[in-house]
Amino acid sequence: MVFGKHFSKYYLKYAFTFIVGIAALIFVDIFQLQLPDLIGELVDGIERGEKGLEGAVTREMLLNFVYRLLIILAVVFAGRFLWRICIFGNGVKIETDIRNEMFSHMEKLSTTYYQKNKTGALMALYTNDLATIRRSFAGGTLMFVDALTLGVIALIKMLRMSVLFTLVGFVPLALVAAFAAFMRRRISRKVKLNLEAFSALSDFTQEDFSGISVIKAYVKEKKQEALFKKRNEHDLNTFYSYVKDQALVQVLVNTVINLGMFGIIFLGGLLIYYAQIGSIQEQFTIGNLITFNSLLGALVWPLMAIGDLINLRGQSKASEKRISDLLDEKIEIDDKDIRYNPTLEDIKGQIVFNDLTFRYPLANHDNLDNVSFTINSGEIVGIMGSTGSGKSTIVELLLRLYNIEDNKILIDDMDIMHLPIKFVRNMVAYVPQETFLFKDKISANIAFSTDHIDDEQVARSAEIAGVAKDISEFKDRYDTILGERGVTVSGGQKQRISIARAVLKDSPILIMDDSLSAVDTITEKYILNELRVERKNKTTIIIAHRISTLETLDKIIVVDDGKVIAVGNHQELLKTCPKYIREVRLQELEKEVGDDSGR
User: Fold this and answer.
1) Is 443 in contact with 478 (CB distance < 8 Å)?
2) Among candidates 361, 365, 298, which has minimal Cα distance to 333?
3) Which of 22, 411, 432, 588 has the greatest number of beta carbons closer than 10 A?
């Protein structure tokens, strides 16, 4: 069974089916424990018949026996089907609900959380941990109720038959209780270690396959195999250590049960023997012994269930904590103080940065230092700077991926911190520096921002992005299924498909973060011209390194070491910004060298 603020609520949510399933389970236990009584009566009747005593088996008695047996079997069959559907069905439903809750919560977590936690470890929560939680809700409930019901009823019947025999059968059980208390924490610790080992293995595997092209290029397959083998063996060792303790608990329970049954058979046999030779007054018949031993045998499952429940509880505690830690993770980026509720049609696209200083949560220095600039609505603006200068940080803050101080970023004179997050992200179309495409049709990737695919809009967006011709050469054209992360297309094609996706979104603000680096200059000019026409009166921000990308734009913001050092168009910066001038000359020199080498 599973407890805690994130789990206990499901017992209430699915209370009806839990109650129906538990009721069916109790009915099954009650009826199946009538079988030992029937068998005992039948054996005693046969024995009396052999001795010619009163109470021998008759035809009516046999018919009654068969009739009662059929009723018991029918109730047990129907009851077992019902409790399996209800209790095990609840386990699957609860697993689905928790998975939905986890996914929904993770979508709200900041990028900082994903920087601190690896993908493989997070995926392990959705596999091993959730499977353990499902087994705890379903199997745990079953084992607890069944062990309690079957155990109590069998114990009461046994006490009514013989207190002495009951004590003989239950004395060894005190050892199980003491041993179980000791093993519970031990198993829980070992399960936690195994889950951590599996997470590390999963993360390594995921990362290895994502970077398989790099591994092949550097011929490091053997090295990666050795590293995988090491992690795999660690996972095996932690699992094997846990399994040994689990087996020890199960073996002990079995041994105790067998000792109890042996004691009963031995003692009962002595009593019956001495009663038959007349040494003592007969108190225990062969039928009584068979009934009693059957009842003790009926306790095998409850006692085994205790051992299994101890093991399962040990596993579930570790999984409960890991999933609870995820669900308790604070949502840092949320709607706290909404002061504006505009519509997308109201947005003109003016952007103002007011002396913004920003540091990433895991950084030890400021990534932006007193950044100030204004982008007027409808402008096509470039941002230029060396690697690590803060260009991508500027656009990430426009997407509200991090919290900032009030009145530091304004869109149409509205503080971005007091606009709904969903609205902020809807008014920005974003082409990230690291292009990401889904394993889906090209048309679905381009139309990702919409709820339905409009073929004409998809084709038009692809045309603007300069990728329509490439797509037409594919066998299935827009129905072509891309590989995972878009591995089946080139880097330039991935960038242009991503641009088409952003163009189709048709937001008031478009951000392209170094999204033209993998295309040639001719295609680049084509895309910029198309964007200028298609996005007339809409704001566009282009982060780029190539001067050819920037020189025709309305404005260029030059960033260096987290600071804005110059703002102006190409001609203005050639007169006022030494860094820009140096970059222009450098690229001209590289072009000349390239032309000479081509000769």
Assistant:
1) yes
2) 361
3) 411
Tokens describing residue 221: 């397959």
* Residues 310-341: tens digit of each pLDDT: 767 767 787 888 888 888 888 888 887 889 88
Q: How remote is the C-alpha of 281 from its chain's centroid?
A: 68
Residue 117 Cα distances to 109, 200, 268, 315, angstroms: 12, 11, 63, 22
Residue 173's identity, in one-letter code, is L
The string over 532-555, giving b where at least 16 C-beta atoms fall within 10 Å of a residue's C-beta and e elsewhere, is: eebbeebbbbbbbbbbebbeebeb
Angle at 470 between CA 468 and CA 471, to 5 degrees: 65
Tokens in use for 200? 């590390």
In the chain, helix, strand, coil percent, each to 5?
65, 10, 25
Q: How far apart are CA 500 and CA 464, in angstroms?
A: 7
Asked whether the beta carbons of 52 and 93 are under 8 A apart, the reply is: no
What residues contact 78, with CB distance under 8 A and at least 6 apart?
24
C-alpha span between 430 and 231 (Å, rounded): 38
The dihedrals phi and psi of 14, each to the nearest 5 degrees, come to: -110, 35
Kindly state the DSSP code that residue 400 receives in the 8-state scheme: T
| Mean pLDDT for the stretch of residues 42-59 | 60
The two three-digit tokens of residue 495, written as one number: 């960038």
Residue with tokens 């083998």: 229
CA 532 to chain centroid, in Å, comes to 43
CA gap 50, 354 in Å, rounded: 105
Closest CA to 207 of 483, 482, 431, 485: 485
On whether the CB atoms of residues 540 and 422 are closer than 8 A, the answer is no
Give the integer Cα–Cα distance in Å for 100 and 121.
18
Locate 367 and state its tokens. 């990534």
Query: What is the widest separation between alpha-carbon atoms in the chain?
Result: 126
Q: Which two tokens stand for residue 61?
A: 């008695």
Q: d(Cα 234, Cα 206) in Å, to the nearest integer?
A: 17
What pLDDT shows up at residue 46?
66
Residue-wise pLDDT for 170-217, tens only, equals 666 666 666 766 776 777 778 778 878 887 888 788 778 767 766 776
Please provide the DSSP assignment of 80-145 as one string.
HHHHIIIIIHHHHHHHHHHHHHHHHHHHHS-HHHHHHS-HHHHHHIIIIIHHHHHHIIIIIHHHHH
Give the pTM. 0.69
Reading phi first (left if > 0) and then psi (alpha if -120 to 50, else beta), residue 553 is in: beta
Question: Residue 169's pLDDT is what?
Answer: 65
Nearest to residue 312, comparing CAs of 320, 323, 301, 322? 320
- Look over the chain and give the mean of its residue pLDDT values, rounded to a whole number: 81
Predicted confidence at residue 599, as pLDDT, reads 46
- Give the total residue count for the chain: 599
Cα 574 to Cα 588: distance, rounded to the nearest angstrom: 13
Question: Under the phi-then-psi rule, with left for phi > 0, alpha for psi from -120 to 50, and beta for the rest, what region is 474?
Answer: beta
pLDDT level of residue 375 (50, 70, 90 thresholds) = very high
CA distance 456 to 450: 13
Phi-psi region of 477 (alpha: psi -120 to 50; beta: other; left: phi over 0): left
